[in-house]
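Researcher: Let's do a round of design. I'm pasting the structure tokens now; please hold your answer until I've finished.
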């Protein structure tokens, strides 16, 4: 007899979605105060939980740390055997326990209080010991767990994770945390490459830049395009200032003009007032220009409008920006 696993899966999703939806009612004065405590803190935000709540604590701490709130997680069991030495009076602690009665978490609360550290509790029971000891309580009560036995933390951990995200994103917004700030904590990944790479890091430079003078023929320009392999060439005046650009697309458009490519000047068919980029521009900005203007490449100029580089979509692809 075959089993349709999709039925139970959809039930789980519906239960957890309902748990998340009802969280909005718990965004109250305590949530506001929790944000104020973290914003005013001169130290770090330490997140702690036991078991599945500990895994959620790790994720919340990681999200906070990557979005402008210095944070790390500690295991409550290890904390009671020496790791509490990581804490200082300037810190804020977020303690997670669905029941609010987890022994390992409650064991470290007296020390936290003695150090004068502000305590934020995330529990599913506002009448619990942990909730009552906290300076701010974030409620994550759920109607039911998605586990059919009502035992495995499912809806409750999902609700806790979402509450942590709400906290982190609210703080991100309050701090004015920017995309550049985010990239500084993610330099090794694709996000960092997208946000931190500048055109100077990816463009073709020096002898690799396709350039011809205004008195060059169309043939000369085509040879330069073929030699440099970027599908375009810059055209400069006698002072080396950019006068225009000629691309593969321009070549297709002049085919019907029956021009003699050996004698016709490139200055007669080039595109003047072309779109350019600055070498200090972010690669992500250049990508936006290419996409908006529906072009494949850019000439990169300095502050005197002299070409110093050239790039195309393939360069951004190789750099991991696309």
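Researcher: That's everything. Go ahead.
Model: Designed sequence:
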């Amino acid at each position: 007899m075959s089993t349709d696993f999709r039925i139970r899966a959809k039930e789980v999703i519906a239960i957890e979605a309902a748990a998340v939806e009802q969280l909005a009612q718990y965004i109250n004065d305590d949530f506001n105060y929790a944000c104020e405590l973290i914003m005013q803190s001169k130290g770090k935000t330490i997140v702690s939980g036991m078991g599945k709540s500990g895994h959620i604590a790790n994720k919340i701490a990681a999200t906070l740390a990557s979005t402008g709130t210095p944070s790390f997680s500690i295991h409550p069991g290890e904390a009671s055997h020496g790791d509490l030495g990581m804490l200082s009076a300037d810190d804020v602690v977020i303690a997670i326990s669905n029941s609010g009665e987890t022994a390992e978490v409650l064991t470290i609360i007296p020390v936290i209080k003695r150090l004068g550290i502000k305590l934020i509790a995330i529990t599913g029971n506002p009448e619990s010991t942990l909730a009552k000891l906290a300076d701010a309580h974030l409620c994550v009560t759920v109607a039911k767990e998605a586990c059919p036995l009502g035992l495995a933390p499912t809806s409750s951990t999902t609700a806790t994770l979402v509450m942590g995200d709400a906290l982190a994103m609210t703080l991100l917004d309050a701090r004015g945390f920017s995309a550049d700030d985010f990239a500084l904590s993610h330099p090794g990944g694709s996000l960092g490459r997208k946000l931190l790479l500048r055109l100077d890091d990816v463009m073709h430079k020096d002898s690799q830049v396709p350039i011809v003078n205004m008195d060059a023929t169309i043939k000369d320009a085509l040879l330069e395009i073929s030699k440099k392999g970027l599908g375009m060439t810059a055209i400069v005046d006698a002072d080396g200032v950019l006068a225009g650009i000629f691309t593969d697309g321009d070549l297709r458009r002049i085919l019907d003009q029956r021009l003699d490519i050996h004698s016709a000047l490139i200055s007669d068919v080039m595109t003047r007032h072309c779109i350019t980029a600055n070498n200090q521009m972010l690669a992500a900005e250049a990508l936006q220009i290419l996409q908006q203007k529906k072009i494949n490449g850019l000439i990169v100029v300095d502050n005197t409008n002299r070409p110093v580089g050239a790039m195309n979509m393939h360069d951004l692809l190789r750099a991991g920006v696309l």
